[in-house]
Design brief:
The structure is a single chain. The protein is mainly β. The protein is built from no helices and 6 strands. The chain is globular and about 40 Å long. The relative contact order is 0.33. The mean pLDDT is about 90.
């Protein structure tokens, strides 16, 4: 499995949150989205952040997949995953099932992701 961050996008919200877009390739097993996190120094793993309101998208990131949570991705294809992530630390990589992945500088969200509207988990 290969995972890379396509973008980290700014979100207007009352709490610190970003929209994250990943590219996933060669995913031959079920991807547990809850395994994507960031280490919080001094905190147990149970307190680390996890993706919120995740959605799998097609390869060019223009449409939500149906079913929304595919079990496998053929080795010769790719998909994207978008999710909201609270309290992002730009100094810490994302920890993923494919290994650590660096966090790029946040930027404006592309129009194609306008469907992803933030709703607080609380």
């Amino acid at each position: 499995m290969k995972i890379e961050v396509i973008g980290v996008y700014l979100v207007e919200a009352p709490e610190p949150v970003h929209l994250v877009e990943l590219r996933i390739r060669e995913c031959t097993r079920h991807l547990d989205v809850g395994e994507i996190t960031q280490q919080v120094v001094g905190q147990p793993k149970a307190n680390w952040q996890a993706p919120w309101d995740e959605r799998f998208l097609n390869a060019d990131g223009t449409a939500v997949l149906n079913p929304a949570r595919p079990d496998k991705v053929p080795e010769d294809s790719e998909l994207r995953l978008v999710f909201f992530f609270h309290y992002l630390d730009q100094e810490q990589p994302f920890l993923t099932p494919a290994g650590p992945v660096g966090v790029p500088t946040p930027k404006e969200r592309p129009a194609r992701l306008g469907f992803a509207e933030y709703e607080s988990p609380c």
